[in-house]
Amino acid sequence: MAQSMMLMSSTTVSGQAVLQRDQPSSLLQRLKPKPFSHILLPPLPNSPPSSSSSSALRTFALFKSKTKAPVKKAPAPKPKVEDGIFGTSGGIGFTKQNELFVGRVAMIGFAASLLGEAITGKGILAQLNLETGIPIYEAEPLLLFFILFTLLGAIGALGDRGRFVDDPPTGLEKAVIPPGKGLKTALGLSEEGPLFGFTKSNELFVGRLAQLGIAFSLIGEIITGKGALAQLNIETGIPISDIEPLVLFNVAFFFFAALNPGTGKFVTDEED
Under DSSP, is residue 17 helix (H, G, I), strand (E, B) or coil? Predict the structure, then answer.
């Protein structure tokens, strides 16, 4: 009993001694001014041992970062080719290439009709022994259909699908005669192509003029009974040597435009 009392007293004395020894240090810690960061931010909890923290903070990459695929350039939109007034070119397949053929036929027909009227004095319908000088609603239905078809074709209403692509131009850099070349190259013209710059686009325009000329001359002849030249008070029924030079020039021009192959080509959406 006495021994136990002595042990308890010794432990209390030692504990008091430790508290008295630690009391000045704790008072110094309390009196020490705290930094400003402790006021704004709460103090971090005691960090665990370095071994556990390193194992806890160790990260593993489960998925690799995806590499960005190269950006594909969008294809440049193709220029839309022209279409007819009624949008019928896709249905009946009437392209500018077809219209070019119709225009060539119209140019030959118009030139031949002018030359025939100048020599014989008869218009197109009179040369075909068709009745003229009547109201237009009494004309032959087939003739009226032909006039309507010609007018629609001349204004591109049937569907003039296609886009003109010209041949590469010669340019001014070819104006000097290179060795072994001729005079056409010196003038900036193509050595292989036609002499004049008459493209298929120009030929198409002239063909439309010929179609309009035929249509209106037929309408005038149906109503008045006079041919195209007689409606313009030009003398007809004379030898070819006495024909007006302007009439001969028009005949020669339409013949030349119909037979001369123009440069360039017409392409559609499928061919481009």
Answer: helix
CB of 164 within 8 A of CB of 266?
yes
Per-residue pLDDT tens over the stretch 69-84: 666 666 555 555 444 4
CB-based contacts of 135, cutoff 8 Å, min separation 6: 223
Q: How many CB atoms lie within 10 A of CB 161?
A: 25
The range of the structural domain enclosing residue 96 comes to 91-166+174-267
| pLDDT tens column, 86-140 | 444 444 556 777 778 888 899 999 999 999 999 999 998 998 888 899 999 999 9
Which range among 27-31, 95-99, 250-254 shows the weakest confidence by mean pLDDT? 27-31
Q: How far apart are CA 262 and CA 208, in angstroms?
A: 15
Tally the domains of the chain.
Answer: 1
pLDDT of res. 32? 62
Q: Is-contact 267 81, C-beta < 8 A?
A: yes
Instruction: Give the C-alpha separation, 124 to 132, whole Å.
Output: 10
For the chain, give me the number of helices (H) and strands (E)? 11, 2
Return the beta strands (E) in the chain as ranges: 163-165, 265-267
> The tokens 């850099």 sit on which residue?
173
Task: Give the pLDDT mean for 245-250.
Answer: 92
Mean pLDDT for 170-198 is 54
Instruction: Report strand pairing: 163-165 vs 265-267.
Output: antiparallel
How far apart are the C-alpha atoms of 151 and 214, rounded to whole Å?
9
103 located within any domain: yes
Do the domain assignments include residue 41?
no
CA-to-CA separations, 169 to 81, 164, 199, 234, in angstroms, rounded: 22, 14, 12, 42
Q: How far apart are CA 228 and CA 254, in angstroms?
A: 15
- Whole-number Å distance between alpha carbons of 216 and 147: 8
Residue 261 within a domain: yes
